[in-house]
Specification:
single chain; 563 residues; alpha/beta; Immunoglobulin-like; five-stranded mixed beta sheet; 13 helices; elongated
Length: 563
């Protein structure tokens, strides 16, 4: 009980002390606080309704001690603020000063103001002029004057835009200049630099390289318009493989047709039998019916002399076809002692100059009898081929059993063509019509083929040579022969000229789904290798080249040329 009573007494004393301290604090705050002070007594009830601004206004009201003194109220200076676009020079603005007139305050006000701290006026820091040129990449931004100088005052290399990349050119200007940035982002006069006026050096634009598009290069890509088929077989007696890659155009492929000029060369010497000559004339008359009006043609019949339908190829109109039939009817077999020279009519068939706007094709009907002499073989295969220089594609149609078929095949292969030899005379028309159907729609000439292997260890060679590659026809598969040391993937580029543009075909070739080739593939490869040996023989007349060619062709039962 005694302990509990003691605690109650201590608690009462603490509460009383707390109340007393609160009362003293309130009295002190009421007398000393700035917000609760007043120059004249106000009712307690009206203090709550008086706004603080009103109290401050009354507290700072000026009171004069001397009679006749007038109160002066300080008015802050008002200055309109104007925003100027960068990079104009910004002049530092001095802080506004408020004049403090002499005044006499009451003693109680002085005592209250003595405890109020007076802060110094706020002044803006001095601002340096902003020069935007210091913050822009000078190697990529070029300035253009608002009022450019006349063209005659500019240097010649500026007017022609043939300026070096690394040497900025000085341009004289009037003072002060007006500069505008690209797209007119900023437009204000700049202050003159300190000191003497100097020429402004305008930085050059960085000329970055631009890759031209296919249309700019006059090139069109048709990689997706052709399918590829590949067959391969291992090489005999050596490492590596031989393959045949065939480009097959899509049936819906549409390309402009190149104009075709046909020249039909008819051998009418006595070695040609009468029935064979009649079959040849009938095949040509039938082939003329399929020529279009945009095609040109001519007919030459020769033995010891040459007869021509026209001095130059003529359009395949109905009147021209009718005249051609009359000319064919007048062609007869030569006399018993008549001989023929194949070089002269072929020289007349070669077009003059380089004509890339048309494909020139000669179709020769002969038995190859004039090639029995070595001089005639060399004259036709070497001299005429060099004279032709790929301008005329030569196709030869003979008969099975004719002598020198291998020589005719080699000469045709040297000149972008091939040899056709049906077994009977009746097959001449069939072979000719099939040939005309395949080559009647040429789309590209001057073909070139390049293979790039994916692996550096792989070596690829392609056949035939570029100067012997035939034209690209819309209705004829394009066959490319080649050898490779390994069955690795490679990229094939095929390019040709059609009209005034270049045709590009890019294909990625894989042997994963390739078919295994038969003996015909190896035989064709042996023929291509024999062509290279024939060219060596025609130049140096070394018979060892022919012996090597026979060794390549004998396993395939093929006859060697130039025997």
């Amino acid at each position: 009980m005694h302990y509990s009573l003691t605690k109650r007494k201590i608690l009462s004393v603490c509460i009383a002390a707390s109340l007393l301290s609160h009362v003293i604090s309130l009295i002190f705050l009421q007398n000393r606080s700035f917000w609760t002070a007043s120059l004249r007594p106000l009712p307690v009830a009206s203090l709550d309704k008086t706004e603080p601004n009103q109290i401050l206004r009354e507290s700072f009201q000026e009171r004069t001690e001397e009679a006749g003194s007038e109160s002066v109220e300080a008015q802050p200076s008002r200055e309109a603020v104007r925003f100027m676009p960068l990079p104009c020079k910004i002049e530092p603005v001095a802080p506004p000063s408020f004049p403090m007139p002499s005044m006499t305050l009451a003693s109680d006000v002085k005592q209250e103001l003595a405890v109020v701290p007076i802060r110094p006026p706020i002044a803006l820091p001095p601002v340096e002029p902003l020069n935007l040129f210091d913050h822009l990449p000078k190697d990529l931004i070029a300035l253009e004057p608002l009022f450019p100088a006349p063209a005659q005052n500019l240097p010649a290399r500026i007017a022609s835009r043939q300026r070096p990349l690394t040497r900025p050119l000085p341009i004289e200007r009037a003072s002060p200049p007006l500069i505008s940035f690209p797209h007119s982002l900023l437009n204000c006069p700049l202050p003159d630099p300190p000191g003497s006026a100097q020429d402004i050096r305008i930085p050059e634009l960085l000329h970055l390289p631009e890759f031209p598009s296919l249309s700019d290069l006059g090139t069109s890509s048709y990689s997706e318009s052709f399918d590829t088929e590949i067959v391969f077989a291992p090489l005999e007696n050596e490492e590596g493989y031989v393959f045949a890659l065939t480009l097959i155009p899509h049936p819906d492929l549409q390309l402009p047709k190149i104009r075709q000029n046909y020249t039909f060369l008819i051998d009418r010497s006595n070695s040609i039998q009468k029935e064979r000559l009649i079959a040849v004339k009938g095949a040509i008359a039938k082939a003329l019916e399929d020529l279009g009006v945009d095609d040109n043609f001519n007919i030459l019949a020769f033995d010891s002399k040459i007869d021509k339908l026209s001095p130059a190829p003529i359009p395949a109109t109905s009147c021209a076809k009718q005249a051609a039939r009359r000319f064919l009817d007048e062609i007869h077999l030569g006399s018993f002692f008549s001989t023929s020279n194949l070089t002269k009519p072929l020289v007349m068939a070669v077009p003059s100059g380089s004509q890339e706007d048309a494909v020139h094709t000669a179709i020769l009907f002969t038995d190859g009898e004039p090639l029995g002499k070595k001089t005639a073989q060399r004259e036709l295969a070497l001299d005429w081929t060099a004279y032709n220089c790929g301008r005329l594609a030569l196709y030869t149609i003979g008969l099975g059993g004719d002598p020198h078929l291998a020589t005719l095949d080699a000469i045709s292969g040297f000149n972008r063509g091939k040899l056709l030899y049906p077994p009977t005379k009746r097959g001449i028309k069939r072979k000719l019509l099939k040939l005309m159907k395949g080559i009647h729609f040429p789309v590209a000439v001057n073909m070139s083929v390049t293979a790039i292997p994916r692996s550096p260890q792989t070596k690829i060679a392609l056949y035939p040579k570029p100067e012997q590659m035939p034209a690209l026809y819309l209705n004829e598969p394009y066959v490319i022969l080649g050898t490779t040391t390994r069955l690795d993937n490679f990229i094939l580029f095929v390019q040709g000229k059609f009209q005034d543009r270049w045709l590009n075909i890019r294909k990625t070739v894989s042997f994963v789904n390739a078919k295994k080739g038969e003996n015909s593939l190896k035989a064709e490869f042996a023929v291509q290798r024999a062509y290279a040996l024939y060219e060596k023989y025609l130049r140096d007349l070394d018979p060892s080249h022919l012996a090597e060619a026979r060794a390549l062709l004998d396993p395939h039962d093929l006859q060697a040329a130039f025997q």
